[in-house]
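Supplementary notes for students who missed Thursday's class. We covered one full example, reproduced here. Read the sequence, then the structure, then the short commentary at the end.
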Amino acid sequence: MTSTVAIVVRTKDRPKFLARALKDISEQTFQDFQVCIVNDGGDRERAEQVLALSPLASRAQIIHTEGLGMEAASNVGIRATDSTYICIHDDDDLWDPRFLEVSVQALDASDAYLSSVRVVQRFERETPDGFELERTEILHGDIHQFGLHYLTRTNRAVPIGVMYRRSLHELIGYYDESLPVVGDWEFNIRAAQVAEILVINEPLAYWCIRPQASGATANSISRPDEHRFYDSRVRDEALRAYIAQLAPPTGSPAGKDGTRPHLAALAPLLTQAHYANELDGGIAHSHQLSRDILERLDRLNERLDALEHQLNSGASRLEVLEERTGHDSVRLARLEHNLSWRGKLQRLFRRL
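Structure (token representation):
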């Protein structure tokens, strides 16, 4: 049976997250959906138990795979469902109850292939009793378009905020299964090449991040080196394809000005890289100035602390001196009083 939305839930050995995700999906105001859980290499019996105890036990299917990777898991779930629209819901993320309703209405009313709501970064930590929220922050709150020129820098549309038409796969293919990370970014770039991404300016999705977590409960972003490696690989493949389109076949003569064809093809990219290097140098210089200023402020604070200590010591000595002066004043008053009576007695005796 064809549903309006197919929701693919990717999971592996995170039963507490999976239970929360299925409950989250069940609470959507829009209910014309089907759910496909892809348990990618996790404990099968435990995943089945979580589904059986969830509100979606009677309307979700579960597929067990042998550690294919996130993008392959997405493709398995997509091919196992039938729908107009598709959403990828990782087991540790969350939706506002209106996410499906608002996203379906927006895509129904437009020609867009892919939409993204505003995503809220939800920083949390797992506790024995559940999950403790630490803070929230809008992801890319200053960006009002998620177009191709923005996506070339970094991914602006994370999976939990995205809904797209199934027909998009006919235009750009499926997720790249060779990418263990950044596959959603690469897919979004290909999607943005054929149509503009529709931005729904409502914070209706929660990307749950646990910076201190490790092991099964950690996010993929906790592996920055892996992200950088595959980010670079995607860019290199795009550059090679770009050069192949612009450069003459191997063995062709150089241009009239002697410029080699492959360098000519790279000219705009080399220029852009030069400006990026200049910008990086300026930023590094600014950071150094900031560090110098902070060091000077630290030294100034140390001198102010020393001066404050000296002033406090002087004030204490002044208090002691004032106390002593007070005692001396009392003694002097008594002496003056005694001397006054002594003078009176001396004058009296003289008269006698």
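Commentary. The beta strands are 3-11, 33-40, 60-65, 83-88, 94-95, 114-127, 130-138, 162-165, 198-209. The two ends are 137 Å apart (CA to CA). If anything here is unclear, bring it to office hours.
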